[in-house]
């Protein structure tokens, strides 16, 4: 288990220079926007405009705060996202434009390199019980104070803190009140063939 505190996240400009992103974690460690295998970040979207394009990347977007936005994604019907919406998965290398509903939003952005890693994002409400991890997982506290307990340990997570659960970690429970995001990351190159 590794704890990531919101106060330690790395701030950097968007790839297209249109705003600021807060990098929660990336693999490999210290990878650039062009070389990561997977990346988890948050971004504040304050104006309407295009998303950055990432060749060969799949992304999932969730709204953490604000009144939402409308997305125009090439090849897909228009989509409206707000805090109540399920996470939205789409290719990060197709033309995408956002129009804010009413003021700025902050989103959670999970990206994986196609053919190298795949991911799934679950939006859940605490308390929950999570089974033993078969792949790397991350829990992001989208609510208020929460507590994670597992055999032999526990940790308190403040708003937007994360816990990384490495493969084969023990089962855990998350106590508290509010939304949590479970991010599953699976290395495709190590997955058993069918």
TrEMBL record:
CDD domains in alphabetical order: cupin_HutD_N
Q: Where on the tree of life does the source sit, at the highest rank?
A: Bacteria
Q: What Pfam family is a match for this entry? A: HutD
* Name of the protein in question: HutD family protein
